[in-house]
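To illustrate the input format used throughout this study, we show a single complete record. The first block contains the structure-token representation of the backbone; no residue identities are included at this stage. The design step must infer an amino acid for every position from geometry alone.
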């Protein structure tokens, strides 16, 4: 399971304490939104309103986490990739 799936699993289980203080990649919220869209639109497991409620909770939790990005390290990221 990817980290995005772990975030959703923690939210669904009511275990937000497992996430607070952790760190996530800056794209994580986009990926979580995509997972919620899939669960709502493609799988029908959530209504649109439920998906929005879940992403609101996730956004609050991510606000309590460190968000990792490449800003200021772009050249180093490319060097490692090369």
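Output of the design step:
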């Amino acid at each position: 399971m990817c980290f995005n799936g772990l975030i959703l699993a923690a939210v669904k289980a009511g275990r937000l304490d497992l996430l607070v203080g952790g760190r996530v990649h800056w794209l994580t919220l986009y990926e979580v939104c995509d997972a919620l869209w899939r669960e709502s639109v493609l799988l029908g497991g959530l209504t649109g309103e439920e998906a929005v409620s879940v992403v609101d909770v996730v956004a609050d939790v991510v606000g309590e986490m460190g968000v990792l990005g490449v800003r200021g390290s772009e050249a180093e990221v490319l060097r490692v990739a090369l």
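Structural context for interpreting the output: The chain has one domain: 3-81. The chain is about 60% helix and 5% strand.
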